[in-house]
Specification:
The chain has one domain (about 5-110). Helix content is about 65%, strand content about 0%. It is built from 3 helices and no strands. The chain has helices at about 5-30, 35-55, 85-110. Helix 1 packs parallel to helix 3 (about 85-110) and helix 2 (about 35-55) packs across helix 3. The model has no long low-confidence stretch (mean pLDDT about 90).
Length: about 110
């Protein structure tokens, strides 16, 4: 499958986003969040809700959210969900939790 330049950039960003967030945690924030089981449970819960909602929003035939075919790599799983949504979702959830944890740590230290 050949991706357009736009799709390659969007897909690369979807892959890079969680890597950059993990790097931020490991190199700068160092909250320990990624080593906690409850973080991984949180991601599993978020995924459990993301699948039906995202699947409904992007469903084949009558989508509510449309992606330009040139903007994604074309891989959709399951229920017509662009795979890029998973990388961006993981990065968004993780970054939110990291910043929340960092703020809470500052309040208890100060």
């Amino acid at each position: 499958m050949k991706c357009s330049t736009v799709a390659a950039e969007y897909t690369a960003a979807a892959v890079a986003a969680p890597i950059l967030v993990a790097t931020l945690e490991l190199a700068v924030l160092r909250t320990g969040l990624l080593s906690e089981g409850r973080y991984w449970v949180t991601l599993a819960i978020a995924l459990a809700f993301q699948l039906p909602v995202d699947g409904w929003l992007t469903r084949a035939g009558h989508p509510i959210v449309l992606y330009s075919p040139q903007a994604t790599c074309g891989v959709r799983f399951p229920w017509n969900i662009p795979v890029e949504d998973y990388g961006f979702g993981m990065a968004l959830i993780t970054l939110s939790l990291l910043l929340w944890r960092r703020q809470a740590d500052r309040r208890t230290d100060g």
